Amino acid sequence: MKSEILKYLSKYTKVTNELESAIIKSTFIESFKKGTILLNAGDISNECYFLLKGCIRSYIIENGEEKTIEFYTEEQVVTPFNYGKSTPSNYYLECTENVIVSVGNPKLEKETFLQYPQLESLSRVIAEVIMAKNQDSFAKFKTSNPEERYLNMLKERPELIQRVPQHQIASYLGIKPESLSRIRKRIINKK
Amino acid sequence: MKSEILKYLSKYTKVTNELESAIIKSTFIESFKKGTILLNAGDISNECYFLLKGCIRSYIIENGEEKTIEFYTEEQVVTPFNYGKSTPSNYYLECTENVIVSVGNPKLEKETFLQYPQLESLSRVIAEVIMAKNQDSFAKFKTSNPEERYLNMLKERPELIQRVPQHQIASYLGIKPESLSRIRKRIINKK
DNA sequence: ATAATTTCTTAACTATAGTCAATGAATTGA
DNA sequence: TCAATTCATTGACTATAGTTAAGAAATTAT
Predict the structure, then answer these.
(1) Which strands form A92-95's sheet, in the order they lie side by side?
(2) What is the pTM of this model?
């Protein structure tokens, strides 16, 4: 399992033996059952995750309604908004499937970074890449309408549509389930 | 002017004398006239900015239409999506006012980080904070409708509404200028 | 296996955003 | 300062999303 992490990091840097052992030492693996809530709104978040297997969903509850913010799948990093800070989370993290993750926490991180400065450097680079991707998806979301968003999702993350229920996809796209149903129908008729 | 940067950084860390001189050495200030394009779509981006004075807007052109992604104002960091990478930018950066910025580039950054590792550490922390904020605004955008987005903007960035033209705000909110005009009318009538 | 629950689809209706066109207001440039 | 240009508002009309309600389909639990 840990080799998945090394494979991921090797996209960003040459993984030396030293780095490899640093990772292996400072990393531990955990499994969670489908349905497990990893973080509750109102709680302090003290863990971040690297997803090895499964799917994690972040969502908020507004007027009694769940609104999906993001779906995380294999090889994605899940860092709660306020990871390592003392402010409570405003959203939930839920396993929508059985999940295997590599877990990090601020204390462990700090120690590791002190001992292996190149890991902090790597962390910064990866944080910047993720940030760029986030900005990119935000831009795409803003500049498209619901139908385009769904088509884009079909193109970019087709497997996700098979893995998660449609009403969660709807809220992820910023619309109601009924609308997504109609959009799907519209698309089929257009073909 | 440089003291503004130190003031900003002091929110995240104790600014030691060493850090202060590191910043001062590795930083230079530039001014740009209103209307200046700092980055063109298709170009490689080689600079990032810390905004000391003025406003910078990022936008893309889609079907001949400008769509505003973000407005950056005082004390904000402008890092192009692909800053330091060799892939061309997919969007524009434009000064919507006369602008004073502190400029960074990857080469300078690299040298500075080598010499002052605590600055890289600080960079990572700030990157994470910005990331969290981005995720937060994305979540807010997704979970609200155009009217709520405008009301939220009125609350969060009231000065911005005075500073930039309304059709740019409309595209920033993901709607057409005519719709924003109607939303404003609706809000006034509700009061 | 069957009942209970949840999810998805459809329909009728309402509210709001998009489109196109016209006009008035504000800004910019010579 | 006046003309030209850009920007904001309004109206009429269209398209699409939200709402409510009902029923079908799929999933889950006993």
Answers:
(1) A37-39, A92-95, A56-62, A65-72
(2) 0.90
